[in-house]
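Most newcomers find our protein records easier to grasp once they have seen one. To make this concrete, we reproduce a full record directly below:

…
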Amino acid sequence: MSQSGNSVRDREEEPLFDAVLYPHRSLSPTGFLILMLAIAACSTAIGIVFWIAGAWPVVGFLGLDVLLIYIAFRLSYRDARRYETLHLTRERLSVERFVRGRRVLQKNLQPYWLNVLVEEERSGANRLILRSHGQTLEIGAFLSPPEKTDLADNLRSALAALRPA
């Protein structure tokens, strides 16, 4: 008897859709190092020209530029360490949001009544919204509009396969 109970529970917890959403990272750590070395080399060469011309204070501003570019990239990389997971079973859609390795949101939505909406805004951007039983949750805010549309289509397909005809 307990064996059939386990099989029903296993079937209910069987993943029907799994996704991990990451922000786009266009520059690898090696690429970042190469870029920073190129910027530093250009600033050094330009700084030497200004130094020879007698405008030595410009060198300090060029160094400040390199430092500010480095800080901006580091902040961008820190922000890019966020991600979201979607896990759909017959019983629920579990959404977890992580920032810098720490879970900051966990939400479970009932999949039978779940609506997946892509709300387009005048600016050309759009929002991917999940609605179920009065709960609303935006997911994938860092995704591009085509990625949001693709994710919405895939999630709708998984939900359609879950629901009876």
